[in-house]
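Hi! If you just cloned this repository, the fastest way to understand the data is to look at a raw example. We've pasted two of them here, unedited. The first protein comes first, obviously.
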Amino acid sequence: MSAQKVCPLDELAPDAARRVVLDGVAIAVVRDSSGAVHAIGDTCTHGDISLSEGFVEDDGLECWAHGSKFSLTTGKPLNLPAYEPVPVFAVEIVDGDVYIDPAVRLEV
């Protein structure tokens, strides 16, 4: 499997998330306030809710339903009620476009 183009970088607003599905894997693509782009599993491990509908703050993406916040860099929950992490995927920016390989999960 190889990285797939998700969108142009300039279509990702700062402090916002976008849901993409690549090869059946739901991924939340997030551009933080510093401009860095992250990709984490889009499904909250507490309530099967789409994280991309949540709130981006600092290094986290908060589930809108129950308030669990997940680290954008490690996928680990930063508070309860979630206690299981979400996967984290490598992001590449090539010629102004965002690429993600859904088969490659980072170990952090």
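Ok, and the second one:
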Amino acid sequence: MSNSSKAVVSFIVGAAVGVAVGYFLNSDKKDELVEKLRYQSDKLKDRFKKRKEQFEDAIENELA
């Protein structure tokens, strides 16, 4: 794939993402979408926190 065709594909993908974001930010479902994203990010944050604690415990047990 040449550089110009990569640029065209990148532009099209970027434009599509921009349109989708604009649509959701201007729609009535914006608050619902934001709430879902907040919930999912909180779940992900909790999972990472648990993994971090497990990793720290495993390292602590190996060093003891």
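That's it. A detail worth noticing about the second one: The mean pLDDT is 87.
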